[in-house]
Q: What sequence folds into this?
């Protein structure tokens, strides 16, 4: 039989480097069949006066073995645990796809920034409007076709409640609250009861603008819109105003910009005319000013409105308006670089 000292030395020096060695250690010193355990069976063969001391020494060894076992076991568990959680800072990061702004938001912000730079302030308001703010205050005659069911989404339960067909409603709301000088732009979503095609949608976005002060002239409007066109399409762009009609402006005009693709030579985009229409504008009708509580003898103003989808289609040369509403990432991803 090994001596107590030999066993003690074995317990102390046993190499426990892995799980197998730990198990072997347990079998050698702690299991029922181990040498150490079987020595407890020898107690009865020892001279009675030595039994107590022998037993104590065996118990000490057993405790020592148990202690070493527990120590090594928890060390090993901690090592495994930290192996699983430790961060490898040299590992390439997972591919986190970058999002981007929607092209409509990019264009809205761009238009907005251009006008904010010359003192316009953006105002927003409700998509669901009443007849007064969308039509009546804006000088629409009672039988004007724009009020027709074919153009406007009305709320069935209440004929006075409708989805705004233009953000001119915000110009009315602003003038009702505020006396001139007024310089606002009104970005927002608008709704028209139109069949959805590649060129038209029942939902789209506008930015409209309004400037009311003393002695505001048609020349002021033209110069402001030229500034806008040049910031948007480049310094060489030219503009032209064609007479038009809107109930809320007199005189009214539609504005074209020289085709920025062909520079006016004629191409597919401008349908070989050299010009592309981008917005409607005009001098605010005195009736509208009076409807909103503004003295039309003292003040005059101009207004304009442009469709954001149309501008975006022109600028990025896309040919189907529905692309802007489908949220297909393959389409949207292409605008990453354009984020303002
Ligand atoms: N509200 C007009 C539209 O939606 C645009 C416009 C605004 C025209 C202001 C003239 C002046 O078509």
A:
């Amino acid at each position: 039989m090994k001596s107590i000292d030999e066993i003690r030395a074995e317990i102390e020096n046993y190499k426990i480097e892995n799980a197998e060695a730990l198990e072997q250690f347990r079998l050698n010193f702690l299991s029922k069949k181990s040498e150490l355990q079987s020595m407890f069976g020898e107690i009865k063969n020892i001279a009675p006066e030595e039994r107590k001391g022998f037993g104590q020494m065996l118990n000490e060894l057993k405790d020592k073995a148990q202690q070493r076992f527990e120590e090594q076991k928890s060390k090993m568990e901690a090592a495994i645990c930290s192996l699983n959680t430790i961060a490898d800072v040299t590992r390439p990061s997972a591919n986190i796809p970058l999002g981007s702004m929607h092209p409509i938001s990019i264009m809205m912000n761009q238009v907005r920034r251009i006008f904010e730079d010359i003192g316009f302030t953006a105002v927003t308001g409700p998509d669901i409007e009443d007849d007064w703010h969308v039509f009546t205050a804006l000088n629409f005659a009672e039988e004007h076709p724009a009020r027709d069911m074919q153009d406007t989404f009305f709320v069935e339960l209440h004929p006075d409640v409708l989805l705004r067909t233009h953000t001119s409603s915000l110009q009315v709301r602003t003038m009702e609250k505020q006396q001139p000088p007024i310089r606002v732009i009104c970005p927002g979503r608008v709704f028209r009861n139109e069949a959805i095609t590649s060129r038209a949608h029942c939902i789209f976005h506008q930015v409209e603008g309004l400037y009311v002060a003393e002695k505001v002239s048609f020349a002021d409007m033209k110069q402001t819109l030229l500034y806008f066109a040049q910031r948007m399409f480049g310094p060489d762009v030219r503009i032209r105003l064609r007479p038009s009609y809107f109930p809320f402006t007199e005189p009214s005009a539609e504005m074209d910009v020289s085709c920025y693709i062909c520079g006016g030579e004629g191409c597919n985009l401008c349908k070989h005319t050299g010009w592309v229409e981008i917005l409607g504008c005009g001098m605010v009708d005195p009736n509208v000013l009076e409807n909103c509580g503004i003295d039309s003898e003292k003040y005059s103003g101009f207004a304009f409105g442009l469709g954001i989808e149309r501008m975006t289609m022109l600028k990025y040369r896309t040919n189907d308006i529905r692309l802007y509403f489908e949220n297909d990432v393959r389409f949207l991803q292409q605008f990453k670089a354009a984020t303002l």
Summary: The pocket of phenylalanine is lined by residues 166, 168, 208, 246, 249, 280-282, 303-305 (CB under 6 Å).
